Amino acid sequence: MQKSRTAPKKPKRKCGFKRLLGNLLISLSAIILILIAFEVFFRIYYGGQIRYDYVGNLWVLKPNQAGFTYPNGKIASINSGGFRGPLIDSKNPTILLLGDSFTFGYAIGDNDTLAMSLARELKKLGLDYNVVNGGVPGYGVGQMVSLYNLKFASYKPKLVIVCLIEGDIIRQTGDQTRGFFSRILSKSSFVAFIKARLELLRQKTQETNYESFLENDIERLKAFEKSLNSQGIRLIVYPWVYKENQTKFYDKISLGFDALPNYYANIVKEFQDNLNLLYAEDGHPSGIFTRKLGEAMAKDLAQKI
């Protein structure tokens, strides 16, 4: 009588899902540790970013602080009024510059900003003015106008200069809301190193809306000008050209406004053999660029004020 043969037991196989989940957790933990290491390194070596307060959807510079916009050792000092540069001297009339990181002075020192350069050049011409740096990184025209109403209207400036670049056009009011995670990331020294690259990517995704956004901003500027004029305040627009292919942008923005000239060609001509001297990080103007710009602006403004 033959004994019945039983099939050999197959070895139990580990659950594939559990193994995959374990690998994912290990990989995620490794990535988090690497990011923490990067953050610690950047924070120790370079310090911290400039910090912001939030008023609705508007981010404003936190008063009484010092930090960087790009981790290169250049520190921005924010005064008790919540802007970069000296406080207002009540004895002198005020010129207010509104703008984005170009106006604020991204990746350059306190004494190299356009506001500081312009104030020095005006003084050489015998004109003592408070030149207030109302630039905030990441702003578009809508944010600039909102900041004026929130912070600077009470200063009663004699002149407001809106300094905007072509990239500001895609920063339409409402699409720059900073949620919880954005606010957390805005405090990261490591993120400060890479965020300019992310901004370039965002601009590419918005290019198809450029023309309609441009018309929106022109209307905003017209309404802002009307409001300022009713208070006896003059608006000047400065379409800040920093690349040679931005003539169309300059022409459209300057049409119908009291606008400063396009200084780009003359500045570039002087530095045509050393163009790299005109730029700091990520295409932003260097201290040399802002100094030359301040010299040219002061001569033209002396005829207007």
Mean pLDDT: 85
Order of helices and strands: HEEEEEHHEHEHHHEHHH
Shape: globular
Overall number of strands: 8
**CATH topology assignment of the largest domain:** Rossmann fold
Regions with little confidence, pLDDT below 50 for 5+ residues: 192-198
Helix tally? 10
Approximate strand percentage: 5-15%
Quaternary structure classification: single chain
Structural class: alpha/beta
Radius of gyration: 26 Å
How much helix is in the residues? 40-55%
> What is the CATH superfamily classification of the largest domain?
SGNH hydrolase
Terminal-residue CA separation: 119 Å
**What's the CATH C level of the largest domain?**
Alpha Beta
For the largest beta-sheet, the strand count, sense and barrel status come to: 4 strands, parallel
Strand order of the largest sheet: 6-5-7-8
* Count of spatially separate domains: 2
For the record, the CATH architecture of the largest domain stands as 3-Layer(aba) Sandwich
What does this structure look like?
The strands form three sheets. Strands 6-5-7-8 form a four-stranded parallel sheet, sandwiched between helices. The protein has a two-stranded antiparallel ribbon with strand order 1-2. The longest helix has 31 residues, at 16-46. The radius of gyration is 26 Å and the shape is globular. Strand 1 and strand 2 form a beta hairpin. The protein has helices spanning 16-46, 101-104, 114-124, 141-152, 180-185, 189-206, 210-229, 247-254, 264-270, 287-301, and strands spanning 52-55, 58-61, 65-67, 76-78, 94-99, 130-135, 159-164, 234-239. The protein has two domains: 18-44; 48-301, SGNH hydrolase (Rossmann fold). Residues 192-198 have low confidence and may be disordered. It has ten helices and eight strands. With 305 residues, it is an alpha/beta fold. Helix 3 (114-124) packs across helix 10.
